[in-house]
């Protein structure tokens, strides 16, 4: 099983000629609504790419229509949504404004994602793969990591977005996945090189490098470079989430780290080839096709 503990966000994207200045109003020529949140995107990718693996999503939505819609979409993709709580108030929301050059400004209102009155129960057993990111309060993420680690589950941490203090989670983690800026931010906090960190903490580390593929460092071994799969990049949003979800599902199915990272890279390449954070037809067969190309 894969248990994703994380964020669920409703994204609203406005396309404008240019980003307005303070006090100014501009007219957008397009508005798009989409379901996002790193946690939910990763659960989606896990469920789509490995249908034989049970995928559960734990997190919180608000008591609004978009919350219910986001939960229903995950359920339709095959994710078990019974651990998603509905809380009073709005769902997590991201307001994204994109200008004609593709530059963007983003405001995130965490909403339900930050409403945890008590520490959640973590229904994990040994053998589960627990997937975490940093869009929930850090002490909640730490609690889940600690509980999962103690239960003998495998903890995959996608340390995104870069968050001060996240380094304290690392002793509880089996596999760390970060993109290049996140790796730089984390290294600045721990003050050692990645292979040393991996060896010291007995930690697998995967660094995603966009169109340059990924690096895999198994428990402090030398870096193995995985090339990216060919893709015509339309929109790179969500590539990292697809990578993490597909990797986690592959680990849960028993693949070794390198094979799992290759499935992640294939899912990432598929996701950049479509607009939006989720590939609408993502499937195990599509990933297999990309792997065999
Ligand atoms: P993030 O979205 O977290 O910044 P990356 O941009 O590193 O993550 O993308 C995650 C993975 O998706 C990469 O390791 C790579 O395998 C794949 N990927 C990303 N961009 C491309 C691209 N332009 N072409 C092919 N694969 C890509």
Automatic annotation (TrEMBL):
<feature type="binding site">
    <location>
        <begin position="240"/>
        <end position="241"/>
    </location>
    <ligand>
        <name>ATP</name>
    </ligand>
</feature>
<dbReference type="InterPro" id="IPR002173">
    <property type="entry name" value="Carboh/pur_kinase_PfkB_CS"/>
</dbReference>
<dbReference type="GO" id="GO:0046872">
    <property type="term" value="F:metal ion binding"/>
</dbReference>
<dbReference type="GO" id="GO:0004747">
    <property type="term" value="F:ribokinase activity"/>
</dbReference>
<feature type="binding site">
    <location>
        <begin position="208"/>
        <end position="213"/>
    </location>
    <ligand>
        <name>ATP</name>
    </ligand>
</feature>
<feature type="binding site">
    <location>
        <position position="135"/>
    </location>
    <ligand>
        <name>substrate</name>
    </ligand>
</feature>
<dbReference type="InterPro" id="IPR002139">
    <property type="entry name" value="Ribo/fructo_kinase"/>
</dbReference>
<dbReference type="GO" id="GO:0019303">
    <property type="term" value="P:D-ribose catabolic process"/>
</dbReference>
<feature type="binding site">
    <location>
        <position position="235"/>
    </location>
    <ligand>
        <name>K(+)</name>
    </ligand>
</feature>
<feature type="binding site">
    <location>
        <position position="271"/>
    </location>
    <ligand>
        <name>K(+)</name>
    </ligand>
</feature>
<feature type="binding site">
    <location>
        <begin position="9"/>
        <end position="11"/>
    </location>
    <ligand>
        <name>substrate</name>
    </ligand>
</feature>
<feature type="binding site">
    <location>
        <begin position="37"/>
        <end position="41"/>
    </location>
    <ligand>
        <name>substrate</name>
    </ligand>
</feature>
<keyword id="KW-0963">Cytoplasm</keyword>
<feature type="binding site">
    <location>
        <position position="179"/>
    </location>
    <ligand>
        <name>ATP</name>
    </ligand>
</feature>
<keyword id="KW-0418">Kinase</keyword>
<keyword id="KW-0547">Nucleotide-binding</keyword>
<keyword id="KW-0119">Carbohydrate metabolism</keyword>
<dbReference type="InterPro" id="IPR011611">
    <property type="entry name" value="PfkB_dom"/>
</dbReference>
<comment type="similarity">
    <text>Belongs to the carbohydrate kinase PfkB family. Ribokinase subfamily.</text>
</comment>
<feature type="domain" description="Carbohydrate kinase PfkB">
    <location>
        <begin position="1"/>
        <end position="280"/>
    </location>
</feature>
<feature type="binding site">
    <location>
        <position position="274"/>
    </location>
    <ligand>
        <name>K(+)</name>
    </ligand>
</feature>
<dbReference type="GO" id="GO:0005829">
    <property type="term" value="C:cytosol"/>
</dbReference>
<keyword id="KW-0630">Potassium</keyword>
<keyword id="KW-0067">ATP-binding</keyword>
<feature type="active site" description="Proton acceptor">
    <location>
        <position position="241"/>
    </location>
</feature>
<dbReference type="Pfam" id="PF00294">
    <property type="entry name" value="PfkB"/>
</dbReference>
<comment type="function">
    <text>Catalyzes the phosphorylation of ribose at O-5 in a reaction requiring ATP and magnesium. The resulting D-ribose-5-phosphate can then be used either for sythesis of nucleotides, histidine, and tryptophan, or as a component of the pentose phosphate pathway.</text>
</comment>
<dbReference type="GO" id="GO:0005524">
    <property type="term" value="F:ATP binding"/>
</dbReference>
<keyword id="KW-0460">Magnesium</keyword>
<dbReference type="InterPro" id="IPR029056">
    <property type="entry name" value="Ribokinase-like"/>
</dbReference>
<protein>
    <recommendedName>
        <fullName>Ribokinase</fullName>
        <ecNumber>2.7.1.15</ecNumber>
    </recommendedName>
</protein>
<feature type="binding site">
    <location>
        <position position="241"/>
    </location>
    <ligand>
        <name>substrate</name>
    </ligand>
</feature>
<feature type="binding site">
    <location>
        <position position="237"/>
    </location>
    <ligand>
        <name>K(+)</name>
    </ligand>
</feature>
<comment type="similarity">
    <text>Belongs to the carbohydrate kinase pfkB family.</text>
</comment>
<keyword id="KW-0479">Metal-binding</keyword>
<comment type="pathway">
    <text>Carbohydrate metabolism; D-ribose degradation; D-ribose 5-phosphate from beta-D-ribopyranose: step 2/2.</text>
</comment>
<dbReference type="InterPro" id="IPR011877">
    <property type="entry name" value="Ribokinase"/>
</dbReference>
<comment type="subunit">
    <text>Homodimer.</text>
</comment>
<feature type="binding site">
    <location>
        <position position="276"/>
    </location>
    <ligand>
        <name>K(+)</name>
    </ligand>
</feature>
<keyword id="KW-0808">Transferase</keyword>
């Amino acid at each position: 099983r894969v248990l994703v503990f994380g964020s669920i966000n409703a994204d609203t994207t406005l396309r404008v000629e240019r980003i307005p200045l303070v006090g100014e109003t501009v007219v957008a020529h397009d508005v798009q609504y989409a379901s996002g949140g790193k946690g939910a995107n990763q659960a989606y990718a896990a469920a789509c790419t490995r249908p034989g693996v049970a995928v559960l999503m734990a997190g919180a939505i608000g008591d609004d229509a978009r919350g219910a819609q986001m939960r229903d979409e995950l359920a339709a993709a095959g994710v078990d949504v019974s651990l998603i709580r509905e809380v009073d108030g709005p769902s997590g929301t991201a307001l994204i404004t994109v200008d004609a050059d593709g530059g963007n400004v983003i405001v995130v209102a965490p909403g339900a994602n930050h409403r945890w009155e008590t520490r959640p129960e973590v229904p994990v057993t040994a053998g589960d793969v627990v997937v975490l990111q940093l869009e929930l309060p850090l002490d909640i993420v730490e609690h889940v990591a600690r509980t999962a680690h103690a239960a003998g589950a495998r903890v995959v941490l996608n340390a995104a977005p870069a968050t001060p203090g996240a380094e304290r989670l690392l002793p509880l983690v089996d596999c760390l996945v970060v993109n290049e800026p996140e790796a730089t931010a984390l290294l600045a906090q721990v003050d050692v090189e990645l292979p040393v960190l991996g060896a010291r903490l007995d930690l697998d580390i995967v660094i995603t490098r966009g169109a340059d593929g990924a690096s895999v460092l198994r428990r402090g071994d030398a870096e193995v470079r995985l090339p990216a799969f060919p893709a015509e990049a339309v929109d790179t949003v969500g590539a990292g989430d697809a990578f993490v979800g597909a990797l986690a599902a592959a680990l849960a199915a028993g693949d070794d780290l390198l094979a799992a990272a290759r499935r992640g890279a294939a899912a990432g390449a598929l996701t950049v080839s479509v607009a939006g954070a989720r590939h609408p037809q993502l499937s195990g067969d599509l990933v297999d096709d990309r792997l065999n190309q």
